[in-house]
Automatic annotation (TrEMBL):
GO molecular function (one): exonuclease activity
Organism: Kribbella aluminosa
Keyword Nuclease: yes
Keywords: Exonuclease, Hydrolase, Nuclease
Alphabetical list of InterPro entries matching this protein: Calcineurin-like_PHP, DNA_Repair-Maintenance_Comp, Metallo-depent_PP-like
Domain Calcineurin-like phosphoesterase, chain residue ranges per copy: 1-197
Name assigned to this protein: DNA repair exonuclease SbcCD nuclease subunit
Parts of the chain that traverse the membrane: none
Organism classification: Bacteria, Bacillati, Actinomycetota, Actinomycetes, Propionibacteriales
Signal sequence, start to end: none
Domain of life the protein comes from: Bacteria
């Protein structure tokens, strides 16, 4: 038996970190990635395509997305099994209920594991989230397969041992443990929810197949499985993403004018493609104006450049300034003498005040 698994595509996600045009382009890329996944399934002549949930965003999907999914899966000459997750939960208004699916598509609709026979002696157990939160574990409540042969599971859930290592904001939706998989008689669980890919002995998280944000690690892919007669699986990860997303840290140490910031960013992104987020950090000279808008056009070869400010300091010589017989000097002397400020607060007050006195109106967040 040969299967392809993917999960967490998140069609129609808003991409709040991007502007309107880039966000729309990123949503188009997610559709193109699904096309690559279905092309992979066809080319590999697999027996079924599996989705472990969060195929789309329940609060954002449109009739256009519904028709796109219906047509994309209808073109496949193989079965498709969909297990709704917490973002695409199965409810009265869900896309899953609105689409007139082709006969090859099976949507699991119960909040408990129910069986489908993939082949003689091989059963796939699937379940659906019926609400966006507070779904109990599908392997709880005394569940066992109660049958022989090979038994596989498809659902959206949180392996509790990994929960604290996963990306922030991941709640324990449908929690389970690796031990529960074996106890219930399941040979392997095909999963969604964690965006960081993971291959364990008895379960697999493919990770989101196309980048959704910056800082994602691991080999995101669709996974081609070969299931042996004894229930063991072999995995082959295949890259299907159409997008490239990169993070680069740019040091501003020693910068004396804004043109040098452009030069450093341009050098850092040379040779990259796709979307690049650059984080500017370091200590600059007092006279430097910092405006992220000044980086417009610095990398026309990219799909987008997303700049942000990290920890940026200003190299003021406070001792020298304190000797001035000026308003600036008096300000520095007063702040340095203040007893109610710790060292970090004192530095922030000094830099903020001095830049205000110098007439600076840039975007610098003082550290």
């Amino acid at each position: 038996m040969k299967l392809v698994l993917f999960s967490d595509l998140h069609l129609d996600t808003p991409f709040r970190w991007a502007g309107p045009e880039l966000a729309r382009a990123r949503r188009r890329a997610l559709r193109a990635t699904l096309r690559r996944i279905t092309d992979l399934a066809s080319a590999e002549q697999v027996d079924a395509l599996l989705c472990g949930g969060d195929l789309y965003e329940h609060d954002k999907f449109s009739p256009d997305t519904a028709q796109f999914l219906r047509d994309t899966f209808a073109e496949l000459e193989l079965p498709v099994y969909l297990a709704p997750g917490n973002h695409d939960w199965y409810g009265p208004t869900s896309l899953y209920r609105q689409v007139d699916w082709s006969p090859n598509v099976h949507v699991f609709t119960e909040d408990r594991l129910t069986p489908v026979e993939l082949a003689e002696g091989l059963t796939l157990w699937g379940a659906a989230h019926r609400a966006p939160a507070n779904t109990d574990g599908f392997l709880e409540r005394g569940f066992t397969v109660g049958r022989g042969g090979v038994n596989l599971a498809l659902f959206h859930g949180s392996e509790v041992a990994r929960l604290r290592f996963e990306e922030s904001g991941k709640a324990p939706h449908s929690p389970f443990s690796e031990e529960e998989i074996e106890r219930t008689g399941l040979n392997h669980a095909f999963l969604g929810h964690f965006h960081n890919p993971r291959d364990a002995e008895r379960h697999t998280y493919p990770g989101n197949p196309d980048p959704l944000t910056f800082g994602e690690g691991g080999e995101r892919a669709a996974v081609v499985f070969t299931v042996a007669g004894n229930g063991t699986v072999t995995r082959d990860r295949r890259r299907v993403a159409v997008s490239e997303v990169h993070d680069r840290d740019i040091s501003l140490d020693g910068v004396t004018h804004s043109g040098q910031i452009r030069d450093r960013v341009e050098a850092a992104v040379t040779g990259l493609s796709g979307v690049v987020r650059v984080t500017l950090a370091g200590e600059i000279a007092p006279g430097v104006d910092v405006h992220l808008a000044d980086l417009a056009g610095v990398a026309p070869h990219l799909e987008a450049l997303v700049p942000r400010l990290g920890r940026v300091g200003v190299a003021y010589d406070f001792a020298t300034l304190a000797e001035e017989r000026t308003v600036r000097g008096q300000f520095v002397r007063s702040v340095r003498a203040a007893a109610d400020l710790d060292d970090d607060e004192r530095r922030r007050v000094l830099i903020t005040g001095l830049r205000a006195l110098d007439g600076r109106t840039d975007e610098l967040e003082v550290h």
